[in-house]
Amino acid sequence: MANVETLYQPAERVTCRCCRLPTVIPAEAGTQAAWVPASAGMTPQPIGQSFGRSALVRPDIDGGPAGVPAAGLAARALYLQALRLFRDGHAAPAAELLAASVAALPGHDGARVNLVRALLASGQPQRTLDAADAALAVLPGHAELHFARGTALNALGQPLAAREALRRAVALDPLHAPSQLNLGNACADLDDLDASEHHIRAALACDPALVEAHASLGFVLTSQGRLAEAIAACDAAIALRPDFVQAHWNLATAALLAGDFARGFAEYEWRKRHDRFRRDFVDLPGPVWTGDDPAGRTILVHAEQGLGDTIQFARYLALIAARGGQAVLACERPLLPMLATLPNVSVLPKNAPLPPYDAWIDQMSLPHVFATRPETIPSAAGYLHADPGRTERWRKRLPDGAKIGLAWAGNPAHSNDRRRSLSPDAVARLLSVCGSGAVNLQVGARAGESGLPDFSSLLTDYAETAALVANLDLVLTVDTSVAHVAGALGVPCWVMLPFAPDWRWMLGRDDTPWYGSLRLFRQPAPGDWHGVIAAVAAALPPVIARRGAPKQSPA
What we know:
This protein is an alpha/beta fold. It contains 23 helices and nine strands.
């Protein structure tokens, strides 16, 4: 239970999923050409999937109706019906009809290209890739098909192949802004931030109104630590499209990293409108609490994100209680025994029947309603307590001497896991630094890779994790929930962070206003865990010496 990480990413780049290049085929005699926006009806997608400007598509069929067999006329009608659906914003049903049109008209290039467009617009990356490959076998020099292929590959988590496809699209049409943008996004996914910035700026040079490019530039600049420029890029996107959720999300990330909590937490409210995260929010009955006087009232706080987030922001429930309110937290079951140590707070499972309440609020909105600033963060010294009985049982289980708890990996299914979890080689280097005082806090599939005793079967809930952590002289962890457990208990903890960290860790400092017992070790460059471990090794000897150094392994 020790290393379930927070849910959200530091920021997101947004991919243009439009197809702007027109398919030019001789128009059918007697048929009016219709121009269909390929981006019609598209909605925001998971990180790295969003859209751009409209494409213009001609519903052309070679030849005329004279002498066309009945089957051909039926295929023509099916094709035109598909294009009308696409024009009206119904990309998914249009794609099904276009697939039938391709089967009925196997030599019709327009049907092939429009099928790719509809599949891309409806968010079906695997089918887009298959259809683009089939079309490219006939039209190998069609820039738009390479664009669609690269966009689909990136959505499928294949940024290297996506980069090659998008390079081909840009080579064929360097002035196609969406291709430049998506190439920049593929480069960002490969951690080539300089190339990413180059291509995104090229997209903006082609089309200054491409709102996705402004938002993606904000992401890349944030990842580079250029926060003032990132905020300006997000502001530019919002000026073009005031309701562009991804731009507001990226703005929140940059502002919070910069320590501008007033603007950052206000923008953070846009998370509730983000399609990626909307499923995490429950529209509960009754009024939403907006920070008004809670005295004599029951305020239900609904946990909404990862377990680490719930731990970090549980501190705010004490503020409700201090103002005379009854705070009730609905959260995940593994947290209940540990969070039950919060004074004057009730906790219950999220999926349990809710008690009567007067108002409710999503937990991550609490910093906003309390107008939190870095200097006013409550309870930075700690606000949770380990159970004494469990703590004593762990004391008897652990060896004497300095004890350094290690957690080196998060959830492998997390989209950012490769950036913030240590490789096995890095784990081996870390173990050599910590010596025989290392204690395994890792859970999950990687718990056994260190050679340390595996306690994961005993860490049945977070109260057990807290009891184990309370016995340690130091916790050394990547960015997972174990850092929040240690910080909330006031136990010394060193957090090893990637170059582009989550917003809560801010930039340019080795401490955090959220937890007084934490020290931050940051990558000096993207992917540089060697530098982090070297810094840890230099800082560790005094910690070991304070408890009588255990024997260290050779480095």
